[in-house]
Amino acid sequence: MLVHSRKARWVTWALFAVLFVPLFALPLLVIVTASLAENWSGAFPSGLTGEHYASATRGESLQALTTSLVTAVSAGLLALAVGAWAALAAASLKKGGKRFLDALFMLPVAVPSVVVGLAVLVAFSEPPVLLNGTRWIVVLAHALLVTAFAYQSVSAALVRLDPAYEQAAASLGARPAYVLWKVKLPLLLPSLTAAAGLCFALSMGELSATMMLYPPDWMPLPVRIYAATDRGSTFTGAALAVVLMAATLLVLLAVSRIRTRASYR
Question: What's the mean pLDDT in 153-182?
Answer without folding.
Answer: 83
